[in-house]
Amino acid sequence: MPDDQTQLYADTGDVQSREEQKKAPLFAGHVKVYPKKVAGVVRRYKWAVLIGLLAIYYLAPWLRWDRGAGVPDQAILIDLPNRRAYFFFIEIWPQEVYYLTVILIVAALGLFLATSLFGRIWCGFTCPQTVWTDLFMWVERLIEGDRNARMRLDKARITTGKAARKVSKHAVWLIIAFATGGAWVLYFQNAPSFVVDFFTGQAGVGSYFFVGLFTATTYLLAGWAREQVCTYMCPWPRFQAALLDEDSLVVTYQSWRGDPRGKHKRGTSWDDRGDCIDCKACVSVCPTGIDIRDGIQLECIGCGLCIDACNDIMDKVGRPRELITFDSERNQALAAEGKPKRMRIVRPRTIAYVVVLALLIGAMAIGLSSRSTVELTLAHDRSPLFVTLSDGDIRNGYEVRILNKTHEEGLYTLGLDGIEGATMSIAGQAVDDVIEATLTAQPDSIASYRVFVTVPAADLTSDRVPLNFILTDVSTGATVRGEEAFRGPEP
Amino acid sequence: MPTKVEKDALTGTETTGHEWDGIKELNNPLPRWWLYIFYATIVFSAVWVVLYPSIPWLNGYFGGILGYQQREVIEDQIADARQAQAQFLDAIAESDLTALSEDPDLFQFALTGGEAAYNNNCAPCHGLGGAGQANYPVLADDVWLWGGSMEDIHHTLDVGVRWEENPDTRFSLMPAYGTLGIFDRDQIRDVANYVLTLSGQAAPDPEAAERGAALYAEQCALCHMDDGSGDRLQGSPALNDQLWLYGGELEEIMAQISAPRHGVMPAWGGRLDPATLNMLTLYVHSLGGGE
Description:
The complex is a heterodimer of chains A (491) and B (291). With 491 residues, chain A is of the alpha+beta class.
């Protein structure tokens, strides 16, 4: 019988948290983390989220969406050369990039809401850094074995076997990284034709550069940097403290139940001691190499794998599960005093986030659904501001641009409003001194017209009179108005 | 410099000996990655000094063994740009002006090029956008001394106005009725009063206008026509409109009758190449007054 009973329950080896292994107090020398394989409910959720997210990422560029002839049929496409962004039924021009801003703000607020409710579930489950690191670790385990095997392999002298394992691990990592970097570029190119171009050497230099860049970053961040990204590079852990409160669910070691901790011999009493047998299973599975029993800390990404590891041990020693669990600070305080727990989801903080989120999403939905397919922009000539004609009338020149966002040729009428007696002539259109003109704009483009507006001097009341241009889409009847000034001499 | 090397108790690292409010600075070495980059920049600069212009002499500089010069680069770029524009410019130089305005690509190129040429050569007198200024004609209005069709504009640009170096230049001359003693001061006032009525304005002195009518018919109508509509063939301005190049007040009209001012424009043919002349014509024609 080994002296140390816990050997039966967990493979403790010389498990140390990273804090314990640090020698120099001022510089954080990198301590390599060897997370151990773990199974359980949380791990199953993590696998499901990982598969779902990776499927979306790799497959989304291949979705097709019919928009008619001459228009890209890729469902999600940012067409930089043609200055258009497509997202299923939505098509956005560069000047509408504020939709993207709103999406980013909504994403940030959603993150705040999720964090105040459930702690860092973004970090633990859905962050790309976590997802790809998890995938890379899975590959590493398949090739090099579990925690102890990997530690032995790293310490062992170089042999053919070790070299083969290392080389094949990095090769698989690089293939995944290449697929990741390649898929990124597909969001900016027509995926099917681009893949052919890419492998036949026909793609642009920029495409090869970005595929290379994102291959390199994926390989380095998920293969080498891993938890250091979360601990040192990412700003999110720094301000999460401001988003968490005593009701947020975080991965928690229930110290009131676990302490005093210590080794436990099978068959001995559990009286006057905690449930924690100090087996360090929670430390050995942690992807960031910390000891959750030290409490909430910057490095904890909230992935909950320690919960699975501890439940496994609790089952083996015959104590209740959930010694480590998702719980709030308030509940822990209540539980320590023996009072019943209560979950507070509706709090001023969460209400505020939900209200702002609803407002933003509502505003964007209204904006998108009432988005005009035609826009009018006006520019008054800078010089001359006005011209006096031979009969004393005053004429102003305008650059009138019609943005036709549809994929058919647009037919419009342009009218004037605001000044009695105003007439217009359009350069190159053989229309002179009319009150309404018919104009066209090519599909998906901007038509530019020079419009001269003439007003009898007697009808001008000041040297600056507002003048409205009214553009009516003949096919839909939709109108857009643009206001400009009509300038004249001082009366 | 401190004479005694002091070591930090916690880390065992030397301190620099500097102390600020009890805080001492550890003398840690520079990070290696930083040092390597620093050395790399030194090597880079040494290579640069040999290859590129680098060291100033008293009367010149060391040009580098590659012989690189930014002036040559910009000259190459200008030559490339000229090369790229050549096909448009050749087409514009050879093209008929009306046909030119019907080819959207060429027309757009010509308008842009015309605007650049206009701003360089014409805007000082005629103003940006043909806005004109005192004593210089507005080009954006509907009044033309020598005609506003493309052909007329092109010809005026080509030969200039009262530009003596060009024998074909547009030329008109009004006698100085006051200076030459043809009219006395009262007669000039009478004629000026009448001229004001031609454009529908009330003469300040209706009786003088009546007297002026006879003088006008005798002396002025030959060029300015009976109704004051002017004659573009002779370059005589219309007097029956609301626009006055040299001012529309009674005194200003009298001054112009007494000692007329005559504007001069250089002949641009020969100064500017045919393509630029064509582009300028299209641009000026597009300003709002083109006929």
